[in-house]
Each structure stands twice: as C-alpha cells, then as structure tokens.
Amino acid sequence: MDTSWFVVLSAFIFCIGAAGVMSRRSPLVVLLCLELMLNAGNLALIAFSRMLGNGDGQIFALIVMVVAACEVVIGLGIIVGMFRRRLPIDVDEMSELRG
Amino acid sequence: MLFEQILFFIAAFGAIAGALGVAMLRNPFYSVLALVSHLIALAVLFLLLQAAFLAAAQVVVYAGAVMVLYVFVVAYVGGSDTPLRPTEGGLVNAFGPLVAVAVFVELTIAVVGSSLSGLGGRGPDVDASFGSPEAIGDLLLTKFLLPFEAASLLLLLAAVGAVVLSRKRRGLEDLDAPEGVAG
Fold first, then answer.
1. What is the DSSP letter of B63?
2. What's the alpha-carbon Rg for chain B, to the nearest Å?
3. Which of A17, A86, B114, B122 has the highest CB neighbour number within 10 Å of its CB?
4. Mind giving me the DSSP string for A33-49?
5. Which residues of chain B lie closer than 8 angstroms to A3, CB-CB?
C-alpha cells in the first residue's frame, strides 16, 4: 500500500476525533475523542517511519502513547473528582477548575 | 500484495467505523467499546507498516490497560445518556463538524498535492528486524535515552497526580481542623 493511503486515513480519523471533541459535552467522551486524535497522529508517524525506512518515527509514536496514558490518568482523575463533588459532568457547565 | 490491500481496507474500515462510533454513540460505555475495536484495527494497520512492537504495545497498553481504566470510570460516574448535541443553538452545533470537514479537505489536499516523492510508494525494503522489540529497545537506550528517561519521569508524575486527585478529601481535614475549630 502506498504511504499516502495511510496518511489520508490518519487525517480522516483525526478529523472525526476533532469533530467529537468540539461537539460532545460529556468530558469522558471528549477524552475518548482526544485518544482518537492522538492515535491518528501515531498512525501518521508510523507510516512516515515506514516510508523512510527509519525507526525514529516509531520511538516518537511510543512516546506519544506514554503521554496519552498520562493524559488519560489525569483527565479521569479530574472527572472522578468532579463526580465526588457533585458537580455536573458537562463541559459546558464546568468552565473553571477552581477548587 | 493483493492480500495486503484487502487487509488494509478491512482494517481501515474497522478503524473508521470505530472512530465514528466513539464520536457518535450516545452511551459513553458503548463509546469505550467502539474505541477498543478502533485500537485493535489500528494495531493491524501498524502490523502492515512493519511496526510489530508498537502493534503489540497498542493492544496490551491501550486496548488492555487504558481502556479498563475508562470502563471503570464510566461505570463509577455512570454512563448517562447524554444528548448527542444540545437542543439550542443549531448553528453553533454545526460548527464543530464543519471545521473538522474543512480540516480533512485541507489535509487531504496537502497530502495528495505535496511533492513528496516517497508518498507514492511503500518505502524502501527493510529487513525483518525493522520495528522489532530489539530495534526499538536499541534506539530507546542509545539514541533516545533522554526522551526515554523523560517519559519515565512523566509516568511517575502522572501516577502521583492521580493519587493526589482521587484521594478522599478527608485527608486534608487534619490540616483544616484547627482553622475550622477556631472559626
């Protein structure tokens, strides 16, 4: 398969994720759509790594996975904190993080 | 070659279907399950690109560990059926998908119209060790040692942050108590 197929697919998945981030209201689903965007970036990195025959892009993708895992942990921690404080689980209502 | 193309289109279809499911399903629980199928389809695509170690890491770390975390939080918070879009403000709601479509068209034009000659081919022939755990580990511990250590520090920070964020608020009452009693 040509590399351009993978890159266009990655762009498509990225845009689905971006649309989800912009239009969904539940912070859980916003985090899930962020995962979609990060994974689309990973796919493009690995496709270019294969195109160049160079393994550096795969290391980039691995570091992106680590960052994504950290982001998930902190994001879900904040959501659980919101739930414990009986705050609405809605990104429109939660416009500030003041304790 | 033909087998590779068939596998690519199956995996791409699965990845797109999973992504659409994540963005459009109403129940967050089903969104998480759609993301798991999306991640497994992506792992197949990684295998097609000869990134064997990353495909394995994708399945084990993402589809395994991270998604279990999501499932627990969705079960804890309660996957309430949130409306797909708010009822008021039609024009504002169409804004997000419109921007996404515009970005996709722009990116596609940029990729197809770029003069990168490598995009039209499948890359140079690489030997079987490309993307293997051995090659990744070699790169991580020599050329990318500093990012590797930074990533480990970031993971430690995230773990500490998660403990701080999710501990009971009662943990601070010892500190707040004298002030509360005086007040």
1. I
2. 23
3. A17
4. HHHHHHHHHHHHHHHHH
5. 118-123
What is the rounded average pLDDT for all residues in chain A? 88
Chain A positions touching B103 (Cβ under 8 A) are 11, 14-15, 18
Min Cα–Cα distance to chain A from B179, Å: 18
The pTM of the full predicted model, rounded to 2 decimals, is 0.86
CATH number corresponding to A25-90: 1.10.287.3510
A64-78: pLDDT as tens digits: 999 999 999 999 988
**Interface residue A87 vs chain B (CB under 8 A):** no
How far is A87 from B96, CA to CA, in rounded Å? 25
Which of A21, A25, A35, A43 is best to mutate for the B interface (most B CBs within 10 A)?
Answer: A35
Closest CB from A7, A81, A83 relative to B111: A7
Residue B182 has pLDDT above 70, yes or no: no
Residue B46 structure tokens: 């990684």
Tell me if A84 and B4 make a contact (CB, 8 A cut-off): no
Interface-testing mutation among A4, A10, A43, A60, with chain B (most B C-beta atoms within 10 A) = A4
User: How far apart, in whole angstroms, are the C-alpha atoms of residue A29 and residue A43?
Assistant: 21
Q: Which residues in chain A touch residue B38, judged by CB atoms under 8 angstroms apart?
A: 36, 39
CA distance A2 to A12: 16
Q: CA A39, CA A13: separation in Å to the nearest integer?
A: 8
* Residue closest to A35 by CA, chosen among B82, B158, B62: B62
Helices (H) and strands (E) in chain B, counts: 8, 0
